[in-house]
Amino acid sequence: MSDFADVAVIGDLPADESLIWSLREFDDNRRAVEFVRHFSSTLSIFSNTVSQIYARYDVELPESGGECLVVVPDMEAFTETWYSIPERAIKTTDYTILAGGVVGKTGVFLHMPTDGGKGKAVPLIAGLRAVTDAFAARGEEFLPVLTKGDLRAFQKKSPMLKLHRLDLSEMQDKSRFELNDIRMGIRQKLRAFLR
After folding, report:
1. Longest pairwise C-alpha distance within the chain
2. Domain segments of the chain: what residues?
3. pLDDT digit string, tens, across residues 87-108
4. pLDDT of residue 59
5. Is 78 helix (H, G, I), strand (E, B) or coil?
6. Contact (Cβ atoms closer than 8 angstroms) between residue 146 and residue 43
7. Under a CB-based contact definition with an 8 Å cutoff, are residues 162 and 96 in contact?
């Protein structure tokens, strides 16, 4: 049985399966929800079901107490919802946001790949700045987004968020104005966090 079957409707909206994320890997569902909620003002969410990116949303546990969390978009945030985003524009990355407990420290960290293959965990803000700078040095942009499946558990306790990124070059059908609006919206959220 999918998580979608557990949540038929949130408020007056029909459920979007790509916004219903499983919590079955976790011993403590509330901890996982709070971890995702912590980044709701920083990271946008991509729904492949409706091909939209939401910059404003909340994260809820359904009243039924099912083993899922629900991303609830702010349906009045028209200027912070971007439509007709092709799935090919959402690229996987090797970056993962970790709770400090995963690396035996306090705080939040970004796991980054290294040449040796194992990777390293660095404080989140420093890591996001380094990644943004590395992309800029290659003439690219790092526009992080989350998708269903990005929330993962470390030993059933600590939540982790695998990052995806939006690749604007995959959206040739969009005008420069539309692309700039998306770029600035995602950047603004990230910049507010990096201050």
Report:
1. 50
2. 3-82, 93-173
3. 999 999 999 999 988 888 999 9
4. 95
5. helix
6. yes
7. yes
